[in-house]
Structure formats: C-alpha cells, structure tokens
C-alpha cells in the first residue's frame, strides 16, 4: 500500500510572527521556516506503517514556493521514499490545495492519505475534509491512533466527549492530532541520503487547477497586548471589581 503525505512549509513554531508595517500580512523576511508540526506527525505515522510492513512506499507532497523543497527534503530525511513539489509562488487556499491533492491522488492511487489536521499559520482545518469530499473517500479526522488491518483502517479520534473510534474502508483520508506520535529526528546519514532521493516538480496547471485566491486579506493586526492584573484584598473587593467591569451582576 502506498501512503501519500502532504506537508506544508510554515513559520517555525518557536518563532514569534511579525506583522508587516503596512498591515498587509505576516513578515516572512529572514524568518526561520520549517515543516508544519501536524504534518511532521503525519510523516512519522506513515513511516511507522512502512516499518510495520503495512505500507510499501511513502510519498511526501508539498504545494508552495520553490523553497518548499527544504521541507520535502526534511520529510525524505525522516524516511519518506520520494517527493512531489507543486510550485506556486503565491498563496494557495485550502480548496485549491485539496483540488491539487485530488489530482495527485488520482495519479498516484495511494491506499491512505495522512495529513496534519491543520497548519499553524492559518489554522484553517479544511484541506483534509475537502480532499475526502472531492475524492469520495471516507475520512478519520483528529487521529490519536491509527491501525490498519486488511482493507480497513481504525482511527481513534479526539472529540469533545473523549475518544471515538471509527473504522474506515480503504482507500481513506486521515488527519493527525498531536497525541498520535512523537516525530523522530532525522539522522545525519539520512539527511545526506535525502539529497539523492527523487523529488519531482509540478505546477497547478499540470492538474488543471486554478489557484487564483477567492479571498482578499483586508488587514492583519497583532493581538492586543495583555493588560497587567491587580491584586485584591478579599473576595468582596474582587466581586465589586467584577461588577464594575460588567462581568458579574
């Protein structure tokens, strides 16, 4: 079984994003970029399935700027077998991403697509669900455990009330949550090997997808700074302050 893993290049989660002076977006100049953490978990899970003998090949896919090759090389260094980069220098919205991925799914015919539940730059949480709808495949979202058995995959997913387990018929779409696994570090020998692994380059036009944005960003602002708190002497003073703030009646 082939496993397809879409990955996204985002600002490193340890970096505090800065808004451009004109408020047109987030400043990416001289900012450290890395793989979306949820996608890193997806790559790890795909590699573990291959190590168990369930999967035969792991293919990493990214849609974005040419520098996204670095993100794909990271996936290859972790253990993916080959990679596909769909080059587009502008922003690509979730629906366009899902349409491109559908084209790749139709071409590659993977038994399982594993991707992060969301990207930490826009937090859309849409691509996996849209891909499932476009391909007509069953989906298991927010996975904290994935088990493949025969022609089925059991996905334990995190819901508000606790955990829910669903059984999907393969081929299927799975989106990963943080508790699914702990991604491995790429070793130096594997980093060197990744440089020689196949990395194909495509364009959205190769899949007949129009990536023209349908949304316009009006303005981007930083969240308001946290206001310092005050100490109160007793409960009565606390209640009085809450009433003055309109929080308590």
UniProtKB/TrEMBL annotation:
Keywords recorded for this protein, A-Z: Electron transport, Transport
Annotated InterPro entries: ET-Flavoprotein_bsu_CS, ETF_a/b_N, ETF_b, ETF_beta_N, Rossmann-like_a/b/a_fold
Tree of life domain: Bacteria
Domain Electron transfer flavoprotein alpha/beta-subunit N-terminal stretches: 23-211
Family membership: Belongs to the ETF beta-subunit/FixA family.
Name of this chain's protein: Electron transfer flavoprotein subunit beta
Organism of this sequence: Sphingomonas naphthae
